[in-house]
Amino acid sequence: MKTKEFLGQLHAIDRDCCLLEKTAAILQWDQETNLPPEGVEERANQLALIEGLANERAADPQIGRFLEELGSKTENPSGDEALPPVERDFCRALRRRYDRAVKLPPGFAAAAARAESLSQAAWVEARRNNDFAAFVPHLKAMVDFARKRAEYWGFTGGAVYDGLLDAHEPGIAAEEIARLFGPLRERLSALLKRISAKNAAGLERGGDWAFLNQPYNTEQQARYSRDLMESLGFDLRRGRLDTSAHPFTTTLGFSDVRITTRYIEGNVLSAIFSTIHESGHAFYELDINPDLRGTCLAEGVSMGIHESQSRLWENVFGRSRAFWEYQFPRLKAVFPEQLREVTADAFYRAVNRAGPSLIRIEADELSYSLHIILRFELERRLFSGDLAVEDLPHAWRRSMKELLGIEPQTDAEGVLQDVHWSMGSFGYFPSYALGNLYGLQFLKKLRQDLPGYEEDIARGSFAAIRQWLRENIYTWGRRLDPADLLFKVTGENLSVSPFLEYIEAKYTELYGL
Amino acid sequence: MKTKEFLGQLHAIDRDCCLLEKTAAILQWDQETNLPPEGVEERANQLALIEGLANERAADPQIGRFLEELGSKTENPSGDEALPPVERDFCRALRRRYDRAVKLPPGFAAAAARAESLSQAAWVEARRNNDFAAFVPHLKAMVDFARKRAEYWGFTGGAVYDGLLDAHEPGIAAEEIARLFGPLRERLSALLKRISAKNAAGLERGGDWAFLNQPYNTEQQARYSRDLMESLGFDLRRGRLDTSAHPFTTTLGFSDVRITTRYIEGNVLSAIFSTIHESGHAFYELDINPDLRGTCLAEGVSMGIHESQSRLWENVFGRSRAFWEYQFPRLKAVFPEQLREVTADAFYRAVNRAGPSLIRIEADELSYSLHIILRFELERRLFSGDLAVEDLPHAWRRSMKELLGIEPQTDAEGVLQDVHWSMGSFGYFPSYALGNLYGLQFLKKLRQDLPGYEEDIARGSFAAIRQWLRENIYTWGRRLDPADLLFKVTGENLSVSPFLEYIEAKYTELYGL
């Protein structure tokens, strides 16, 4: 009976792998927040070494051997020989990471990393010069690397894109996403057209939002952001708020989850909603069952579930009337001059103004998913062979016209706007829109269990909400796949209805449609 | 002719080892400056893993093999077969690190690290409770580990303490230090007694220093410290200033050297002189020849030479009349209220007030070396077997009385005051006093080459001084041993005269003796 020993060995390898991954995350966090400019080059060498060591651990041949020795014990849920459920989940997560790592031939990951680094630099230049042609060879290389990676993982032919999706959202295929995005596309587009018509008819409330176009002192913004995250329940003994060029959340340890934001004098909403968004990501990571600490199970299960949390906090809670009922007086106390004439209701309307726009990361809650659907459809066609890289700008403009009713004048504000493709990240975008769907399905159940949750928010109290999210979602870490987690919590499969009903109700009321 | 290949392999191993050491330094820096309190435990695991990997590289058996293959090429300075000088220095430094690592038996380093960690925790408690007896078993263990370590390195019998000294100051032995500390002890003690007599006779200028006992806003202190470090020539593209409980300097990359300070509202001098002191350490690391970047030669050669630089900047430059001629108006502009009645000369006198005190880290420039001499003499007796751990408190009080004329009332402000012994760091203290000696010998030469250096300081211009230090000292990194570096720069061996002449002149003038 060597079961215990094999498991112990697997845990030892996994432990080192996780410690190395966290170490790499620390180097990256420091790079984004603190690194002196001249230190960049050596930092890249440090990161490459640590990431290489983490990858070595993830692909340690001993993992394959021990998993084989454990054999059916890692799968069979019955019988004396079966492992405890949490150990089976551990073995499954370990095998998934191991398989992904060992199926790539030696040198592939390093070659891809080098090409990605060149490609990202080329993208920065191409976007700056609005020169898509200069970026084409790099983007082609990125598509090739992604295709090969999926093929090594065992996804061939028409399933290549499924392989890329699976890396971000385990278990979901392009066909299912397309089935969901169909009605999403149609109804969001229709809703957006009605709002555009209202806006065009001069009925938009732009005049009420002039208070946003004022300078807001960034030091005071920082003070308000810290207060805000603490009022959401962020425990600063287990995390931090810092500033970086682009907001992000990173887990440097089980009790060291850090978020960043940025302060723009002319845009007070930017820091506020980044702070809430990243706090949502952080709460997920901070509230995983402590028994899983230090293992590969102690992280969010997928990009989509992660985004469901950041978006739940940012949009559903953070852009609600109840939220600003409590927070607006607090914000007004920090910026009494700028907000003197403004009411909580006007502020609520201002943070929910909608309309078609060119740039994804500036889009409102309603039109955001349309930006994602556009990218999903183009990615899918790229990998089915239906669309050539050279034809992307044209396809982009056509889709924008169709989905949002507007067209970019330049590729810089069109196909070149996002960093993702330049890094070879295909199959990533859909998670953002899936997050909206998961989030509203979770909320439907939360509302049943906590019917008074909106009054809580209006009182600035998030304890019960956070507890519900922790006990139902966060605590599981990677133990359950996204679809199983969703079903366990809601008793339903992935669906667009809760999200569409929420969005349609919210914007019908907001715009008096 | 495989020379090139062997050298290449040695550089590859050394490169990884250095990257891992820097990575560990990043984890530590983050721990001191940013880590949320609950993250401490996991950070210890991350650090242990990375330090373990660095130690593995330092003791990689291939290093021994390749050095052997290179054989006499690494040593013989003549002949066609000889390596270029810089590669010989590289092999020598590599061998030193390798020998130190491989001579320790397996498990020794880990056992010592565990014991040190327990001992340090016990010391914190013992100091808090003023309970030396509770610390005795730990201190005995620390002495034992240190003795064994030196013995493994090949220092036996009466030479054990030499082995510990050599780890901090390569090439120096206890006998030589004793020879230097003799006259230092005698003349500093005598000078201090004359100052004490003056102070006791009511002639001290304490009344003039009342302005120090006021609150100085810590945010303004921080702003002044940043300005100060930049005015010394610290290039913020290659480093940072942060805050931590105890000020330190750390090298996270060739162009990423960070210093910390701390801001105490009731003590404006603390942050100022920490900032200058740590800047001195940083300049040394930042100005090493860029050709050595990323190798084991790209660091300061010894603790003593490092301290010579921090003390040169902090005391010789930073506590000079010329320095405050330029800086005082700037400080006064930040704190106009507190410094309204104060002149540059009064400030100069205030930062140089002297007298016997119990606590080393609060001692003035004159009496500081006496605190070191006391520790050196006790350490030496501990390792010669002449003094038992249990008898340390008594011996401490006797020496304090003899050297400084005062006695601690408690062990907490006596033998328990420093962290060093609790971590098993024996042979470390002398570097602080050696730094004073090296520093003034360097200054003697600098003054010959740059006779106008004091006018430069009075004009706030450090460019020529920094260039001289870089070209003569900093650029070498670890290529030269301390004694060789000193001789190369000054043409002299280690000597107390320049330091004693400087101190006696300065304090005779200050106190009108």
Topology:
2 copies of one chain form a homodimer.
Chain A: H1 3-33, H2 40-58, H3 61-70, H4 85-102, H5 108-129, H6 132-152, H7 160-168, H8 174-203, H9 218-232, E1 239-243, E2 249-253, E3 256-261, H10 268-286, H11 303-317, H12 321-334, H13 344-350, H14 368-384, H15 392-404, H16 430-449, H17 453-458, H18 463-472, H19 482-490, H20 497-511
Parallel strand pairs in A: 1-3
Antiparallel strand pairs in A: 2-3
User: Distance between termini of chain A?
Assistant: 69 Å
User: Which strand-content bin applies to the residues of chain A?
Assistant: under 5%
Largest sheet of chain A: 3 strands, mixed
Q: Report the C-alpha radius of gyration of chain A, rounded.
A: 23 Å
Oligomer: homodimer
| Number of H- or I-type helical stretches of chain A | 20
Q: What structural category arises from helix and sheet content of chain A?
A: mainly alpha
Helix content of chain A: 55-70%
**What does the overall shape of chain A look like?**
globular
**Count of strand segments of chain A:** 3
Spatial ordering of strands, largest sheet of chain A:
1-3-2
